[in-house]
Amino acid sequence: MRFRRVLALASVAFAGAFLSIVASAQAAAPVKPGDAAAGQAKAAVSVAASAQAVAPVKPGAATAGPAKAAVAVAAIAPPAAPVKPGDATTGQAKATVCGACHGLDGNSSVPLYPKLAGQQASYIVRQLELFKSGQRQNPIMLGMATPLSPQDMADIAAYFAKQKVLPGIADTTLVSAGEKLYREGDKKAGIPACMACHGPAGQGNPGALYPHLAGQHAQYVQQVLTAWHGGQPWGKGPHAKIMLTIASRLSTADIAAVASYIEGLHSAVPAAATATAAAQ
Ligand code: HEC
Ligand code: HEC
User: Fold this and answer.
1) DSSP string, 40-79
2) Among residues 165, 181, 203, which one ends one of the domains?
3) pLDDT tens digits, residue range 88-124?
4) Atom of ligand 1 nearest to the CA of 100
5) Under 8 Å CB-to-CB from 107, ≥6 apart: which residues?
6) Which of 33, 47, 173, 263 is deepest in the core (most CB within 10 A)?
7) Spatial contact of 160 and 117, defined as CB atoms under 8 Å apart
8) pTM of the prediction?
């Protein structure tokens, strides 16, 4: 009897061990030689998932909120991989959190949050790097940019660059003064034509990192130009000095006029821009 019981116990133990081996074998089975592409997709999902966790933070929330959440996301972020060209589809998922302020399609409704739709990808990446390093100082965007890897930045930038900016409306009382400054500058005051760098339709120049301006909120443009006028650069070096010098020569009236003109500036094909605006 005793022997049988021992045998029975032993067989139960054996069966248990066997099952657990099967179980672990099954768990192990799906592991194939590492697939870099699949790994990237998984890493992207984990970033997107953790980025979405930040989403409930609303524009009105205290700046400390996004900053703390950002630190948590940074801890989960996978180690840096070589940056591939930005992928707009992956970028869309990663950009969900940005949509709270900038609009899901990059057309923000609050005029102090810049529109990102149609902005050049290279410019968006550069600004995110400047925020992350603290060279362009903004507590909200420091918190938002800190957890982003270079690949996240490239993907998000690719997504927003592909969106169509919705044109705004210029103030009719300011438009002629604004247009003159934008197209001709003011020789006496040493102000170059904005068009020379930002393009006749405000499309900018991606190679030179001159941003797209057309349709941008006047209030945001006004705030940026006023800060530069006061001598606050975004980073160091000759590139950062360009707008600092130009803005130092703009009067308050110039800034208001040119900002309003920029908001009303449409793409090179006005008919197409109007059709897009009407369709949306
Ligand atoms: C809580 C609101 C908020 C959220 C969320 C947010 N931003 Fe911003 N963002 C701002 C504000 C405010 C500014 C303007 C900063 C300034 O005045 O310098 C800004 C500026 C920017 C700029 C500079 C645009 C320009 O024209 O110079 C970029 C690029 C940007 N944000 C990208 C992002 C991305 C990418 C995300 C998501 C990862 C994001 N933002 C999330 C509020 C937000
Ligand atoms: C010589 C080239 C040049 C000229 C001329 C020029 N800009 Fe710029 N602009 C730049 C560069 C470069 C930047 C990016 C600044 C940076 O990254 O520090 C910029 C950025 C801006 C921005 C910030 C846009 C954003 O969304 O971040 C505004 C607004 C702007 N310029 C308005 C103007 C206006 C108005 C004029 C004419 C009075 C003008 N610019 C003339 C080169 C130029």
Assistant:
1) HHHHHHHHHHHHHHHTT--TTS-THHHHHHHHHHHHHSPP
2) 165
3) 999 999 999 999 999 999 999 999 999 999 999 999 9
4) 5
5) 115, 117, 163, 165, 166
6) 263
7) yes
8) 0.76
Whether residue 124 sits in one domain with residue 183? no
Look up the domain containing 224 and give its range: 166-280
Do residue 182 and residue 199 come from a single domain? yes
Ligand 1 contact via 101 beta carbon (within 6 Å): yes
Torsion of CA 188, 259, 279, 160, to 10 degrees: 100
What digits encode the pLDDT tens for the residues 236-270? 889 999 999 999 999 999 999 999 999 999 754 44
> What are the C-alpha distances in Å from 228 to residues 170, 185, 234, 251?
22, 17, 9, 12
243 inside domain? yes
Atom of ligand 1 nearest to the CA of 157: 35
Ligand nearest to the CA of 248: 2
My answer on whether 152 and 229 are in the same domain is no
Task: Pull the structure tokens for residue 189.
Answer: 């005051």
Concatenated DSSP letters for 236-268?
SSHHHHHHHHHHHT--HHHHHHHHHHHHH---S
